[in-house]
Structures are given as structure tokens and as C-alpha cells.
Amino acid sequence: MQNVGAISIIYEEQKKSSIEMIKSFRKNNPDSSIVIYCDGVVLNIDQVCKEYNCKCVIFPEKIGYPASKDLNIPLEYLHRFLQCSNFIKEEFYINLEPDCMVTGNLKLNDNCDSFIISSYPLQWSFQFCGDVVRRNKVMYELFDLYKLFFKSEYFESNVFDKIIGGGGMIYNKKFFIKILNEWELFKQRCLFVKFIFDKYEISDDYKNICHDLWYFDYMLSLQIPFYIEKKLDVEKENETVKNYIIHPYKNFYI
Question: Is the residue at 253 inside a domain?
């Protein structure tokens, strides 16, 4: 069995909840690496790193909550996150967002090779908010785009309802370093995917609930099919992960 590391994102307004998540992870995973992605100025961050044995990567310019109609904001956020991946010593690490409580010792089988492992059933709405007409228009174009990049026997039309790369997920470091090393290609694909979305306006019935904001994990989910090299076993669950990660965990969330 192998240990799982952690990347924790901290900015000043959510410092309290982030520290509680780090504390829970360190208590149950004393030998795992923790890398703090410090978003802007965070008071007493050196003391936090010393107390919980963390490495800190400081990005002076704060982004804050990474959701925007401007695609560049979540792209920059994700790029920073991937840079932090370089400092994880384990093969896998959890995206320890400020509402992801870890209550046990996270270990994976040595032969695990998944690129994302979830603690709960995988699904993603792609923010269509029930707008079936728009969903069908966008997704058919995306399916055609994805098919250009992988063999037909790997393609499952329902896989896009089951993959997501957000908080509480465990990531394969090798896979995410690959994205970092091919960052310009990743950005180009993101821009093209956004172009497809932008071609179709939200129906009038859904404009009040669909905001077309872009998130870093949203973009990541839409990109995953480009990297599929074998048939995905998306239904397979790791019981240790399932039992020990609580997300969302709102008691400390500010």
C-alpha cells in the first residue's frame, strides 16, 4: 500500500477552514507530504507550515475563488495548482479544498494507476442546469471532438456524466505533471471547448440559474477525454477513499 499526499489551497478569507482540513489530514496521515498553495498574502503562513510540516508555494497575486466568465482566471488557478504537484513526493495526492475533511489514513494499492479517484459517485452536470436543448447541441460537438483523439473502443457516450476533477479527488501525480508539461496544448483545447459552448446561448427559461462561469475543475473534467489511453473503469471505487473523505464538510467552511 502507498501513502497519499495533499495539496491544500489557502487564501486569507478561508484560512480557518483550510487549516482545519490540513489538521485533519496531518493527524491521520503523519508521514504524507502536504503542499500549501498560498493564494496571495496569508498571515502567519510560516507558522502553519511549521506546525503541520507543510511545504508552501506562495503566489503573491491573489486569485481567490476560481470561477469567472473570464477563462484566464481558472486557467491560471489550475496552472498554479499543477506547479504545486511537482513538490508532492507520493504518486497520488488529494485536492484538499477548504471543505474536504480527511478522517483516516489514506492508502492506495501499489498497482493503482487511475488518474482520478473519487470518494463519491462520479457525475458532472456541465452546468446545463436542465437545459436539455443546449446540452445536446454542445455535447454532440464535444463527442465529435473527443473521437478525434482516442480509439473508438475506448469511447463511452456516458463517460462524460461520470468524470470530474474537483475537491476531494485523489489525483495521479504523473498524469497531472503531463498536463503541466503540455500546458500550451491544454490551454488551446480549453479555448476551443469554450468556443463550442459559446456558440449556443442559454435558453431563456434557464438564464436565471445558468451563469456560464468557468471553474478550474470544470475545465479539467472537459479535458480528461483527450488523455484517455485505455477503457475507463469509472465505476470502480476504493473503499478506503470512500470511507475517509468527507466532502463537502461545511462545519468550518467560511
Answer: no
Q: Whole domain around residue 131: which residue ranges?
A: 2-246
Peptide bond into 225 cis (omega under 30): no
* 3 state DSSP class of 174: helix
pTM of the model: 0.85
- The H-assigned helical ranges of the chain are 15-28, 45-52, 72-85, 132-147, 173-181, 183-198, 216-223, 239-244
Q: How many domains would you assign to the chain?
A: 1
CB 221 within 8 A of CB 80: no
CATH number at residue 158: 3.90.550
Q: What is the DSSP string of 44-102?
A: THHHHHHHHT-EEEEESS---S-EESSTHHHHHHHHHHHHHHTT--SSEEEEE-TT-EE
Three-state DSSP class for residue 183: helix
| Distance in angstroms (rounded) separating the CA atoms of residues 147 and 90 | 33
Structural domain includes residue 205: yes
Write down the mean pLDDT value for the chain. 81
Main-chain phi, psi angles of 11, to 5 degrees:
-135, 160
C-alpha cell, 23: 489538521
- Whether residue 7 has pLDDT greater than 90: yes
* Nearest-angstrom CA–CA distance, 207 and 203: 6
Domain assignment present for 100: yes
Residue 237: DSSP 8-state: -
Q: Is 209 contained in some domain?
A: yes
